[in-house]
Amino acid sequence: MKKICSILVILFALGMNLTAQYVVEDVANVAVYEFLDEMAGEKFIELNSAVKPYSKEFISDKLLELEAVKDQLNRRQQKELAFFMKGYCLERNELPQNARWNLIKRNDISLAVLPPAFYYKDSLFRARINPILGVTAQHNANGTPYQRYWGGEFIGMVGDNFAIYGSLRDNHLQKEIMAEPTYLTKTVGGAYKRTNDGKSADFSEMRGGITYAWKWGNLGLVKNHVIWGDNYNGSNILSGRTPSFPMIVFNIKPAKWFELNYIHGFLTSNVIDSTDYYVGEDNELRYRYRNKYIAANMITITPVRGLNIGLGNSIVYAERSVKAGYLIPIMFYKSIDHSSTMGSENQNSQMFLNLSSRNIKHLHLYASIFVDELSVERWFNDEHNFSSFKAGANLDNYPLKNLSVTGEYTYTLPITYKHRLLNTTFACNDFGLGHYLGDNSRELYLAMTYKPFSTFHVKASFSNAQHFNDYPYLDGKTAINTPVMQDKTWTNNTLSLDFRYLCLTNLYINFGVSLTDIKGYDVKLKEEYNEIRLSSQEYLNLYTPKFYQGKNTNFNFGLNYYF
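Predicted structure:
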């Protein structure tokens, strides 16, 4: 503890005269993320899009960079820039200037109805309090399930470097739960309190943290979602679909060509520890879950402007306490694991590589490789490593302005993301940390987005997702010889048309229609690899909400307000 305190003191001293704040922007605020991605593709700004979420100050700084070159933006882009600038006034040490129906408006306080928020600032402290409200509904021949949520958010910035923030959402799911650990969907999961029939549920989502930032880095204890890996339809490194979890975050960028991102997360294992329990008044034993942690880092090198090469590794471990070696941001964790668990059961380690190129104007090329287990010898025989591969391209504003086209392909080999021990799986609350399709799967995703005017977009997309045999990870020799994508067990073909309008700062209206064809299949493979063998309907029930099973025409609507 003394060493950790000493490190903090040193960092505070280094940052004493360097102004910065670190409060993250929710990844659900997709419009501003998409805008920055477009601007990076146009070569107006530089962006490491492999690590999300971004901080609000980072976004504000990028918007200010764009403000300096706004004459080079087209008319729609200029209007969107002005629109987004309104949402980051506190980061510029300003109060909102265009709020409507002000109840209080002074030099230090602002309270308005549209957008509904309370602002305060003085020479030391800046703060904002705002509500969070939303409802999303879906409809097809199977019914009309919906989700509503409400809550609030607080952001406080102390001096030039400290920040505290928190947001609480109370969620209610009615008629259908769209995210279960086994479902092959991108919907973010939750810790549900279910109704007796199991069709509806309530859950709360608390995020926030306390952080210290300086000009070239930040350090914090936070509870957030995290997404690592460039993607436009689900990352295959850290996907962000688990419930948010507490973590230590550390980032430094001391030079334009070097950046280090690190997290040490405290995961929920959902595995009972039979040695750790409380005794109730009725002498009933109340068991606790086993400890579960993740340490992960990614070093990003930028040899030339527009080209980012990210190399990282992670480890999921289940010791009784945090291990000091995994608190070191720059380590190769598999080596530490070998030295500390030799002769015992190793923990679950991974490696990954992310490539992102915006060297050609308008074009973003990217690829990522996730390796769960690697042996060079397997390259020369019929055995396989446990790996996932993703590659894609996004073309913005060429040959037509305000039009973008995306193509992405994901290919994941069997046993990837799995582990022999239940308490070291690559998951939190049983939801996978990796790609939403899991192992032994592949997906083709195509999309076209048109923005006829600012803050409005029309998006047409098609995805073909396929999942194949499921094998348990019983022993290494069997696992590396399992057949690759031999028998389909599930497919999802989806054609969608979506409309989104950002009518006020952070007030989204969504409407869409989709044609879905989701099927399960009987397994034909001979039973020789201990594969899970279910009927076509059982596979369908395992991987898909009943609302989406079979062929359907689906309508969706959403109204969401959040900062």
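Summary: Helices lie at 2-15, 30-41, 56-68, 75-86, 333-341, 476-479, 536-543.
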